[in-house]
Design goal:
The complex is a heterodimer of chains A (294) and B (195).
Chain A lengths: L10 H27 L6 H9 L13 H10 L11 H11 L11 E5 L20 H6 L15 H5 L5 E4 L2 E4 L9 H5 L5 E5 L4 E5 L7 H7 L9 H5 L3 E4 L2 E4 L8 H9 L5 E5 L19
Antiparallel strand pairs in A: 1-4, 2-3, 5-8, 6-7
Chain B lengths: L1 H16 L10 H6 L4 H30 L8 H23 L1 H7 L3 H4 L3 H12 L5 H29 L11 H15 L7
The chains are: A alpha+beta (294), B mainly alpha (195).
């Protein structure tokens, strides 16, 4: 391209300055016009709701971050109770903002691991040296004798963003003081051992086993598994036995003499308390004392 | 035909032989930072390609039409930064308004990389290589972006596997990533002399 002007001396600085000014000015004007014409309206209500949320972007509500959740709430106010880390305080604030009556969304949900076998309690078929992930180990057969129980390789621990899940002696354990109920652990477990339960009381009683094998088989490979003997069901109607496995109905559960009796009479000690101040689990009765359903 | 051959070799050179991440070590910040997951890595690659293509051509044009005729090559650095930042900002606003799906894919990365050295790098290299026509400038700058995309996607695939591998504790995270980047650079050295 041909040279338009031969600039020398101090005019050079002036020319450079003017060019920069011109260029900068041109872009500034274009951007100014664009910022007005290409404006994306973010409703101020969305911004107000977003301010109240905890900004953790944990995804526990089911949306991709707090901003998405705020937008969704505006569309459908029925989604208000979903923020677990925020808790009822946040829900109340949002409801107030939207001038709605919010009925108490119920007790907070917290995870319960339906297994209580530590490394010593369970039987392994082989020493597993594959990919150290529960999903990987679950895809193989015969890693662990119990096909239903916790593998202890930490998929839930890695999923938890609040440092509330740890693998303690081979068993996934929840720290209820840190848990916010975001459900990430529940979704991460490949054996679906972690259930989100409404914690109506500080400590919930639960049957910490998921083994549907017959009592004899379960007993053979796990010292603390549920043998389906039905003693608990006889004590309290909150318990039912189905598929060789006792289950507790969390809606019906009330701490009372009957559930206490079931807790004490369980031969394997698989009924435990889970919660912030839960006592240590009972030890299983000796093998000879157990009435096994063959 | 000759012209096409020049463009093709230029493109291949910038993508494989003289990959900007592996031979010139530009753009390593987003390269190491965003290569955790393949989805975000690909989005980042797209964003970089877009920005380099846009900035390369635009800055070459301004250089050719304004700076050289006025003898103001000295103002190149500042000029380029103004143009890059302004153009990217403009495009981001446009994309956010009119193509929200594309914005979701890579929109958030655009402001992050507008002043990344890989973008300014290609603009300045177009002068060093004495690019003399617009088409060549466009092809080369797009090629740089595509080279970055290739590099970051390979790295993302490797890193996803590394997450499950048995890495020694002292090397977990950034150290093993940098070692991997070095090994990839060595591997890409195999392309030298191809063109």
């Amino acid at each position: 391209m041909m040279i338009l002007a031969e600039i020398s001396g101090w005019w050079y600085g002036v020319a450079a300055g003017l060019t920069m000014l011109g260029l900068g000015g041109a872009f500034a004007i274009v951007l100014l016009i664009a910022s007005v014409k290409l404006k994306v309206e973010v409703a101020p209500e969305v911004e107000r709701i977003h301010q109240v949320l905890p900004h953790l972007d944990c995804g526990g509500c089911g949306f991709a971050g707090c901003m998405e959740y705020a937008k969704a709430i505006l569309q459908d106010p029925g989604l208000i109770g979903k923020c677990s880390p925020g808790g009822p305080a946040t829900s109340a604030k949002i409801a107030e903002m939207l001038n709605l009556q919010v009925s108490d969304s119920g007790p907070q949900k917290r995870p319960i691991v339906h297994c209580r076998a530590h490394t010593d309690d369970r039987t392994m078929y082989a020493e597993y040296e594959g990919i150290q992930s529960c999903t990987a180990a679950n895809a193989l057969a015969n890693v662990q004798a119990c096909a239903f129980g916790c593998l202890g390789l930490g998929d839930c621990t890695r999923a938890c963003k609040f440092d509330a899940l740890h693998v303690v002696d081979g068993l996934s354990t929840v720290d209820y003081n840190k848990c916010t109920g975001c459900t990430a652990c529940s979704k991460a477990c490949p054996r679906n051992l972690i259930e989100m339960v409404p914690f109506r009381f500080e400590n919930m009683m639960t049957v910490a086993c998921s083994s549907k094998e017959t009592g004899k088989s379960t007993r053979a490979f796990c010292k603390v598994g549920c043998i389906g003997c039905g003693v608990c069901a006889k004590q309290s109607d909150a318990f039912t036995v189905e598929d060789n496995l006792a289950r507790i109905n969390f809606e019906k559960y009330q701490p009372c003499g009957q559930t206490e009796a079931a807790y004490n009479k369980c031969p394997t000690g698989v009924i435990v308390y889970r919660g912030k101040s839960a006592p240590a689990p009972r030890q299983p009765a000796r093998k000879e004392e157990v009435a096994v359903k063959a | 035909m000759d012209r096409f051959y020049v463009l093709l070799t230029g493109f291949l050179s910038v993508v494989l032989v003289n990959n900007f991440v592996f031979t010139k070590f530009l753009g390593t910040c987003p390269y190491v930072g965003v290569s955790d997951r393949i989805s975000s890595a690909f989005g980042m690659g797209l964003a970089v390609t877009f920005v380099t293509a846009l900035s390369g051509t635009l800055t070459w044009l301004i250089d050719d039409l304004v700076l050289i005729p006025l003898g103001l090559e000295i103002a190149r650095y500042i000029c380029y930064i103004v143009i890059i930042a302004g153009a990217v900002q403009l495009v981001e606003m446009y994309v956010r308004k009119f193509v929200p799906s594309l914005y979701k894919a890579f929109g958030i990365f655009l402001p992050l990389i507008s002043t990344n050295c890989v973008v300014l790098g290609i603009c300045l290299f177009l002068d060093v290589w004495e690019t003399d026509n617009l088409l060549e400038a466009a092809v080369l700058s797009t090629g740089v972006g595509i080279g970055f995309t290739v590099a970051i996607c390979i790295m993302a695939c490797i890193r996803e596997q590394l997450k499950l591998a048995d890495v020694p504790d002292c090397l977990k995270g950034m150290p093993i990533t940098l070692i991997t980047a070095g090994l990839l650079a060595l591997a890409f050295m195999g392309f030298a002399g191809m063109i």
